[in-house]
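Hi R.,

Here are the chain sequences for the assembly we discussed:
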Amino acid sequence: MGATFAQKVLGRKSGKPSVQPGEIVTARPDHLLTHDNTAAIISKIGGELEKYGLDNSETPVIVIDHVVPASNEKTATNHKRIREFVAARGIKHFFDAGEGICHQVLISKGLALPGSLIVGSDSHTCTYGAVGAFATGIDRTEAASIMLSGKTWFKVPHSLKIELKGSLAKPVSAKDLVLTLIGDIGASGANYLSVEFHGDTAGLTMEDRITIANMGVEMGAKNAVFPVDEVTEEFLKQAGAPAGWEAMWADPDASYVKTLTYDLSKIVPVVAKPHTVDNVAPVTELEGTEINQFLIGTCTNGRLGDLKVAADVLRGKRVHPNSRLLVLPASRDIMLEAVRDGSIEALVEAGAIMLPPGCGPCLGAHQGALAPEEKCLSTANRNFRGRMGCAEAEIYLASPATVAASAIEGRIVDPR
Amino acid sequence: MRVWKYGSDINTDMLFPGKYTYTCSTPEEILPHLLEDLDPSFAKEAGAGDVIMAENNFGCGSSREQPTVGLKAMGIKAVVAKSYARIFYRSAINQGLMLIECPEAVDAYKDGSTVDVDPEGGLVKVDGKDYAFPKLPPEIIAIRQAGGLLDYVRGELQERGSR
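And here is the predicted structure of the full complex:
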């Protein structure tokens, strides 16, 4: 019996010739991502850091992104403590406020490599499966322990195979595909599983793959991964990734708990209704739902292609007077490119409010909070009750094309 | 001792709202907001020795650890659910919070049922009837016995330092 992607990476990283699902192994992650929560993480281990020091200064990747620029004295003090820690410990990979959302930054700076093992104190760490990495989320305490020890334990997961066939019919997008998937298998449909995408993945852009892998955790997955191909290689080259990585992929006779097959040409625009991501319906069932706030961006859909799609829809038009549109590029580099190619000009002319690259309103910590009874249509990855700062508000999730088309009408419309 | 019963897909935003994640990190800061958007009475009335029972996929969503830190600090004896989301499950191990996966016990529970848990014995008692749950692997028990992940790692570092 062949090995799955998860078995191969976890076997290699734990120094074992082969590992089986259910087995617990110890491995040294290639990178440890932490963000604004670095402040809380280092405060747990101040004494140990003094006594033993960091395990090493090259594994951590620290990005200040969740509340940027700082919203108040407390978050500003957290940021300050992170900068002091970075300077004192000589952290090699540090990205300050304004650089972008951690997942976009880590992947676009070439730090996520095929076959590498990455953990992060953020649930959307699974994003790096887009480039063939084994990447998964952990909590702050575990991040603190890895800073000290450099290692952690992994239970080798069983795997779910998703076979893709054909191609998406524009304006249907990767977001519609992943929401459809989550709607089908449910928010716990891939619990504890490694999700592998097989089949016609070559037709998906790197942006598409990032959007899909990013939402792996919304179906409960430990990680979600795409095979490495020319698209990946070109992306890594552009990102300035170091050479010497080795792609890993499942053997043809690997064992899966289940195989699902999707005909991409059959996917239609969908919306996840409040208050769970698996509450998915075709957009046609929700047409006419009045929306107060639209959000295009986040680590799920804040890349250049997403902003371009939105700009093409909104160019020469206006956001509905009863609504507001927030645009949140995933990184400074993306924002700059979108300025240069005219996308941001079109969006601002249409009435969009531009937010600085970062997590912004997605988790309700600051910026763009909702009021009771308000409805938001967002390209983010979560619509949980209270997620955007108010438990009496409602969040709907959709693709950039659907959100942009709906913003003109002030209500949900079919982008086709 | 009180039992708090909840449904499926209880996410970490319901257990601890995202708007507080970067301003509250100590148990004192966390406790007043625990389960705020799920059950406002919980933070006021729950206490040491209480048990939470839930359906499937408890703790899904964000990796924030305020829910596990808060429930542990409150003295919650155990959470008994049909299944858990993996980051939350891991986080509970790291904090030394007892999570029990026991669908039969959850199904047996009705409003007003008496519940007791015997973590060492691997049993949940509902209305006097025993329901067994699987034992954890030794690697995980070692972390729990050390009092949580940081204490476990401290032990390792001390051992390494003294060699």
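Chain B has a mean pLDDT of 95. Residues 3-134 of chain B form a domain with the Aconitase; domain 4 fold (CATH 3.20.19.10).

Let me know if anything looks off.

Best,
T.
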